Each structure stands twice: as C-alpha cells, then as structure tokens.
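Duplicate of #3305? Posting structure anyway:
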C-alpha cells in the first residue's frame, strides 16, 4: 500500500445521500489507513443532469461529515487534457462519431444486456468522415472501436476476479457526447492517470464498465490502477436508493438535528464496524478492514427517515 493515492469523485447531479457517503467512507478509510493521499475530483461533465449549487453543497456536506483530501480538481476546467487524449485516439483510428440514440441501440439488442450496459454492433463504423458530418444528422457521440474477441479480466480487491468479453457484451462503447471528448468515460480514465490514482474505490454498479476503461487505458498507454468495487446501498425492494425509499439525503438528516458522528456511526455499522454508536471517521481507522464489509448490498430500512 506504499504510495497509495485514492480519490473521491462525486458528480453534481443530485444531493449527497447515505449511499454516496458509504462508498466515500470506504474510499477515505482505504487511503488514510494506508497513510496515503486522497484526491477530490468533481465530475461535472454531465451538464444536462447537473443541479445548480449541487457541487458546492456536496463539498460543504462532505467536509461537515469529517472528510478531507489533499488535492482538488474540477473536470470542467480540464477540457484541454481530454481533447489531447481524444486526438491521440483519432490519430490511431480507434474512435468514430455515432448518431444512434439510446432507443436505437436498445432496439438492436439481440440478447439481454448486463445491468445498464447496452451492446452496440458498430452501426456507424465508417459511416461519417468526421464529427461535423455526423452532427448534420443528429448530435453525435464518440465511440471506441472494439475488435472481435476482445476480452479483459482483472482482479478486484473486494469483488474478486472479473472477466468480460467486451466485444460481445459492450461492442463499440461510448466515450463522450462532447466534440472534444469531455465525457465521463474518457475523462475518468485520463484523470486517474494524470492524478496518479493507484486504486479506484466505487460502487459495484460500475464493475461491468471497468473492462472498457481498462481497454481505453491500454490504447492511451496509461497505467491501470487497482479497483475496489463495494456493494451499493439499496432500498427494501433491492433497487438503488431513490425518493421512493424515503429521504436519505445528508441535508435532511442534518436539518433534523443529526450530528456528523451519528450519521458516520450509522453507516459504519452497515460496513461491519461498530454497533451504530456515534463516531468520527478517524475513530474508524483502527478497526477498518475490507474483510468486515458485507458482500451483499446494504438494505436501508424504509420509513420516516430521518427520525
């Protein structure tokens, strides 16, 4: 674990809730337990879904809960870096513009897909000379060209070995809906390398997307960090937290008089640490271990949250 560099990478697409905090807690503990460095990166490139004020509120609430970090970045300020990476991929003939909508891609599915991942058969390969030509039809996205038979496997520090035939599960996967490549998949890969991230801790809903990111790292000649995908927080129906499960926003608990220590203690118990008694993040360092975290999702009780 020497030289460990981890990250917290929220998006300003909504309010911070208990599930977000749980994953960030594991990421923070993983870095601080290793006497490593932690990078904060606001992933604000999903502009249609960004909520005004959400970025500042997320930073303030994380600090209120006791989180700290050593470096801070904002992706929307790093567009030139993504443009350079996209240019490298274009020069290598590895990307092309695609005008297929999600509805088009869903209609082309010949088999059930994995989670939220959709298989794309390469409909727009070779169809357009460049982005400008594609944009005359419909706002395009950049897709990464995947050769037949491309398999990627890796060992996740929490989830274990994972392997995927990317050419059959994803096909040519999307990189960004921005002409300069400023989109989640490309930006996350480029930034992890630029910021020296040695391990990515995130929710296991992103496990199926990791092989595509590893392919992209290889194409750009970038190192592959370690990965630690931890279970999500879900409602009693097994679905990820949403309004239908009650108000699990940090702001709601705070308004109801909950202290940061009470929230941290509650979430820590769900990770096998303590009995739910109030505690700080630093109080958890002596007892933190990935081994105590359940491999099943945290089922958040439904009710009048917060009480």
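Output from current build:
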């Amino acid at each position: 674990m020497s030289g460990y560099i981890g990250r917290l990478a929220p998006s300003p697409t909504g309010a911070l809730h208990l599930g977000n905090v749980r994953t960030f807690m594991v990421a923070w503990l993983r870095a601080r337990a290793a006497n490593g460095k932690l990078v904060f990166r606001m992933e604000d490139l999903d502009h249609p879904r960004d909520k005004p004020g959400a970025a500042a509120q997320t930073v303030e609430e994380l600090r209120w809960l006791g989180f700290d970090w050593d470096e801070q970045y904002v992706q929307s300020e790093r567009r030139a870096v993504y443009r350079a990476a996209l240019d490298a991929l274009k020069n290598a003939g590895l990307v092309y513009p695609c005008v297929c909508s999600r509805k088009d891609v869903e209609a082309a599915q010949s088999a059930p897909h994995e989670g939220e991942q959709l298989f794309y058969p390469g409909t727009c390969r070779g169809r357009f000379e460049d982005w400008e030509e594609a944009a005359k039809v419909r706002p395009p996205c950049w897709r990464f060209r995947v050769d037949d038979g491309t398999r990627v496997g890796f060992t996740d520090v929490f989830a274990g070995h994972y392997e995927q035939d990317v050419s059959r599960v994803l096909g040519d996967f999307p990189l960004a809906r921005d002409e300069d490549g400023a989109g989640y998949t490309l930006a996350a890969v480029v930034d992890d390398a630029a910021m020296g991230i040695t391990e990515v801790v995130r929710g296991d809903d992103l496990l199926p997307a990791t092989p595509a990111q590893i392919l992209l790292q290889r194409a750009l000649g970038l190192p592959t960090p370690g990965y630690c995908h931890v279970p999500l927080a879900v409602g009693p129906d097994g679905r990820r937290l949403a309004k239908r499960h009650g108000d699990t926003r940090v702001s709601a608990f705070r308004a109801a008089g909950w202290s940061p220590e009470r929230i941290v203690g509650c979430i820590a118990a769900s990770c096998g640490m303590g009995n739910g008694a109030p505690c700080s993040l630093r109080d958890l360092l002596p007892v933190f271990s990935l081994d105590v975290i359940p491999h099943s999702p945290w089922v958040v009780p439904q009710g009048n949250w917060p009480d």
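Confirmed duplicate; merging threads. The chain has eleven helices and twelve strands. The chain has two domains: 5-76+231-299, 79-188.
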